[in-house]
């Protein structure tokens, strides 16, 4: 999902991109999943190509990472189709994964000569999550079933009510009934609120690390309301020309990181406090 900016950092990146020696520069945004993916990409290039890799991980939000890529300060970073459509291209979200990928591929190549590689295999979109005992007792596995079963006390992050792919459309699509106004909170508090019974359902992210270890059920979006946020590597054409083997090396990872795998990798860092390089090495092994 999208996070944003910082101008001073952007200026520094633009200056740093001038006159650099031959190497591949891997970037990432500034949250666990992105930093971890950036390290996985960097280690994959090192082990497969044996060329120097510079890491510029934890850059900042979406706009900063995109500017770093288009300026040549970095050569590649992982991005999400839904974020590219809404934040960069200013287009409405698209639910169909293939259509979303085709649109961002076409526009990124036309505008900036950037190539989207095949998706890594997971979709970091919204996920509606309930306590596992509640789901099993009522036989709930889909959002349609949850909407028909009862009204829900909903917990959500602060922006879920305002997003174009957020609460209003969810209520209309499923006829979901709420028990009062949504309880808004920091994203890091959602699972605590759910497991303590403060809320009965949360609007979280499909690759949250905590969802891999807590007794919760992710309800299937059976009407495909939430748009696609498939993750893929975005790379400069110039880097592909300079290092033609890098595409094949990175696409060895395509389709290899499922939602469940990404949840477990995120938990290794956020929950078990293993280092990012260590978790990346373990995954690649």
Please state the second-level CATH architecture of the largest domain: 3-Layer(aba) Sandwich
Instruction: State the shape.
Output: globular
> What is the CATH homologous superfamily assignment of the largest domain?
Periplasmic binding protein-like II
Mean pLDDT over the full residue set? 92
Strand order of the largest sheet: 7-6-8-5-9
* Amount of beta strand: 5-15%
Distance between the termini: 28 Å
Rg for CA atoms: 20 Å
Percent helix among the residues? 40-55%
Number of DSSP strand runs: 10
Annotated CATH topology of the largest domain:
D-Maltodextrin-Binding Protein, domain 2
Number of helices: 13
Q: Uncertain runs with pLDDT below 50, 5 residues or more?
A: 2-19
Oligomer: single chain
Which descriptors would you attach to this protein?
globular; alpha/beta; 3-stranded antiparallel sheet; 5-stranded mixed sheet; D-Maltodextrin-Binding Protein, domain 2; 285 residues; 15% strand; 13 helices
């Amino acid at each position: 999902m999208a996070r944003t900016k910082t101008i001073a950092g952007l200026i520094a990146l633009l200056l740093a991109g001038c006159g650099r020696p031959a190497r591949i520069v891997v970037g990432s945004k500034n949250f666990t999943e992105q930093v971890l993916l950036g390290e996985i990409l960097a280690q994959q290039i090192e082990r497969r190509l044996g060329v120097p890799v510079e890491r510029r991980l934890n850059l900042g939000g979406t706009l900063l990472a995109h500017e770093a890529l288009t300026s040549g300060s970095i050569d590649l970073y992982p991005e999400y189709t839904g974020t590219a459509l809404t934040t960069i291209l200013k287009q409405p979200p698209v639910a169909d994964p293939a259509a979303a990928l085709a649109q961002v591929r076409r526009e990124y190549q036309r505008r900036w000569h950037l190539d989207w590689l095949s998706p890594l295999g997971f979709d970091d979109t919204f996920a509606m999550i309930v306590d596992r005992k509640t789901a099993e007792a009522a036989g709930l596995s889909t959002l349609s079933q949850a909407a028909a079963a009862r009204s829900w006390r909903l917990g959500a992050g602060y922006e879920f009510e305002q997003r174009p792919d957020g609460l209003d459309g969810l209520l209309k699509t499923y006829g979901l009934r709420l028990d009062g106004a949504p309880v808004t909170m920091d994203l890091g508090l959602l699972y605590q609120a759910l497991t303590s019974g403060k809320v009965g359902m949360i609007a979280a992210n499909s690759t949250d690390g905590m969802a891999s270890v807590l007794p919760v059920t992710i309800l299937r979006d059976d009407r495909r309301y939430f748009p696609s946020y498939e993750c893929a590597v975005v790379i400069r054409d110039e880097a592909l020309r300079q290092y033609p083997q890098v595409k094949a090396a990175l696409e060895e990872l395509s389709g290899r990181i499922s939602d469940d795998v990404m949840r477990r990798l995120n938990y290794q860092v956020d929950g078990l406090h293993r280092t990012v390089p260590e978790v990346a090495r373990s995954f690649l092994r």
